[in-house]
Amino acid sequence: MRRRGPVRPYPRLARVNALVHEVLAEEIERLVAADERLALVTITDVACEADLRHAVVYLASLSADAAGALEERRRGLQRAIASQARLKRTPTLSFAVDPAIVEGDRIEEVLRHARAGTESGDVAPGEES
To answer: Which range of residues forms the domain containing residue 88?
Structure first.
């Protein structure tokens, strides 16, 4: 049995996601000088489809200004991926707020309310004082 190519530590799609993430982070960093709306944009993850036709770029937060700036620059970002990555096709990018960040914020808010309730002397249901 003949082995084809080097053994990879993780699957191809994960490597593609990491590569796209790196290229986009570098490009957005370069664009901040020209467009200050991108100053606080932080990419948390990239999820490419298996056929590489589409990729969702997850961000820590997405204001209306940042969303507009990213949409204006989307084709340029796709061109950067095409020129820096050797891929069969360049995915069409879409941008979304990372659901893990949203869920984490929601849980933090619940904990903050619970903590405020116990500090004020309120007893939660099911607890004895």
So the answer is: 12-119
